[in-house]
Design a protein that fits this description.
By secondary structure, the chain is an alpha+beta fold. The chain has helices spanning 38-45, 54-67, 69-72, 112-130, and strands at 24-35, 83-91, 96-107, 138-148, 155-156.
Length: 157
């Protein structure tokens, strides 16, 4: 098993030293889901949520969260992100929304945490905007889909 990179030989938490790593083009994609009542799903997809445009607010929240990941996740490096995209896909039969993020940069470390944070906050924003209609929504399946760059190369899950 690989050694944990955020723990030193004495068991103390440390930020990983990336100073000797090469700058490469990197990207990460992540996804997550929010299941809701048919009433809430219809209100979202028809634009009838009183708080406003759910998709626009969630997209902006996800982008903002990706940019602030190093402030939210301990020991995460601040990154100069080149692109952040957030897309939503509607499953009417399951009353479920799928959120997918794409984050890219030129840097010494990857953007997995930024992509995952983006999806998480976008879904939480949807929950917040829709909770007056459905308090029983379920957020699930937040995971990394794909990453590329650095010594690991391209990995698709």
């Amino acid at each position: 098993m690989d050694k944990l990179t955020h723990i030193d030989e004495k068991g103390r938490a440390v930020m990983v030293d990336i100073s000797s790593k090469d700058v490469t083009e990197r990207f990460a994609r992540a996804e997550g889901y929010i299941r809701m009542s048919r009433e809430a799903f219809s209100a979202v997809t028809e634009g009838n949520i009183k708080k406003g445009d759910v998709f626009a607010a969630a997209r902006i929240a996800g982008i903002m969260a990706a940019k602030e990941t190093s402030s939210l996740i301990p020991l995460c490096h601040p990154l100069l992100l080149s692109k952040i995209a957030v897309d939503f896909y509607c499953d009417e039969e399951g009353s479920e929304l799928r959120c997918e993020s794409f984050v890219s940069l030129s840097g010494k470390t990857g953007a997995e945490m930024e992509a995952l944070t983006c999806v998480s906050v976008a879904l939480l924003t949807i929950y917040d905007m829709c909770k007056a209609v459905d308090k029983g929504m379920v957020i699930s399946g937040i995971r990394l889909l794909e990453k590329d760059g650095g010594k690991s190369g391209h990995i698709k899950f």
